[in-house]
Every structure is written in structure tokens, then in C-alpha cells.
Design brief:
The protein is of the alpha/beta class and about 180 residues long. It contains 3 helices and 9 strands, in the order βββααββββαββ. A hairpin with a 2-residue loop joins β8 and β9.
Length: about 180
């Protein structure tokens, strides 16, 4: 690990330079816009509100016994953590040109119709980035066990997916794109 000097004119403070591997996520234009809108809202609306809440609480007297001030500072800390996380996700987001995707196999943003070989039930899912996943609308994450198991499969192939109570087998019936 490399040491970094973070002070110029004072006694040097050494910190470890830790490099974190960032996960690249793939988004549709709609998903990327939604992510950017949330980030803009947090920075433009919620951050100033958090600062105002702290200022309002500070005006109420002694900070050592001011629970409202402590709560406002904690809320600000959580907000800054959320902003930082979203900035990292946005910096590592990649826009997918869906017209260039291979429709012969399951990839990110594929619409997949599968058949559970155990009970014969057919389901249709869209594989999306983790932050876009919403099971109610049929969008499952490519990082979920089912998503991982389906990736790269072609029509007619069977995906065997290990779950806590055994192995599920899904036959790929159809692959499409919107």
C-alpha cells in the first residue's frame, strides 16, 4: 500500500491509499436518467434542506443537550453517504446500445421467457442492472442467482440455479429485446 501525505504546512498525517475496485453497471437511457435525477435531487434539494435543519437546530440553544441538532447531523451524514454511493455508481455506469446486443443469448436488458421444469410454470423477466431491479414489474438483477444463471444461455438451453432449498431448472423458451 502506498502512503499519501495529506498535509502541506503542518505535521504530516499519513493515510493509506486504498484503491477500491468499482463495479461497472450497465443501464438503459431511462435507467441512467433515473439515477442522475435522483442524484441531482439529493444534491440540489435534500442537501440544502439538511444544512438548513442543522442551522435551525443550532439556533435552539446549547448543542451539548440538543437532540434535534444531533438528529439533524446524523441525517446529514446518512444523506452524504447516499450521495457518495450514487456518485460512485453513476461514475461507473455505462449506457447500453440495445441495438448492438446479440439476441441469440440472454444478456443484460434481455426479455426472457422461461419455464420452470419442476412445476411447468412459465415466467417472463427482464434482466437489468441491480439498481433497476423491481420484481413487481418483472425486472430482475443480473447479479441475482436467477439472473446469473440465465446469462449467456440460448433458447432451448436449461439453466440450473442453486437456491437454498435445492436446484431449480429453467428452460429458456424465448429471448427478445424491446
Amino acid at each position: 500500500m502506498e502512503m499519501v501525505d495529506v498535509c502541506e504546512n503542518r505535521k504530516p498525517l499519513k493515510l493509506f491509499n486504498t484503491k477500491v475496485m468499482s463495479k461497472v453497471s450497465y443501464y438503459t437511457a431511462e435507467g441512467l436518467k433515473k439515477l442522475k435525477d435522483e442524484l441531482d435531487h439529493l444534491k440540489g434539494v435534500m442537501r440544502p434542506k439538511a444544512s438548513q435543519d442543522i442551522a435551525d437546530a443550532r439556533d435552539k440553544g446549547d448543542l451539548s443537550e440538543n437532540a434535534e441538532y444531533d438528529a439533524a447531523k446524523e441525517a446529514q451524514g446518512l444523506l452524504e453517504m447516499r450521495i457518495s454511493k450514487l456518485e460512485e455508481v453513476y461514475a461507473n455506469a455505462r449506457l447500453i446500445d440495445e441495438s448492438q446486443l446479440d439476441v441469440s443469448k440472454v444478456l443484460v436488458h434481455s426479455n426472457v421467457k422461461i419455464k420452470n421444469q419442476g412445476n411447468g410454470m412459465e415466467m417472463k423477466y427482464t434482466l437489468v442492472a441491480e439498481s433497476e431491479a423491481d420484481l413487481k414489474t418483472g425486472k430482475i438483477s443480473v447479479t441475482s442467482p436467477i439472473g446469473k444463471g440465465l446469462l449467456g444461455k440460448k433458447v432451448g438451453e436449461v439453466a440450473e440455479i442453486t437456491v437454498p432449498n435445492g436446484v431449480l431448472k429453467f428452460e429458456i423458451i424465448e429471448i427478445s429485446r424491446d
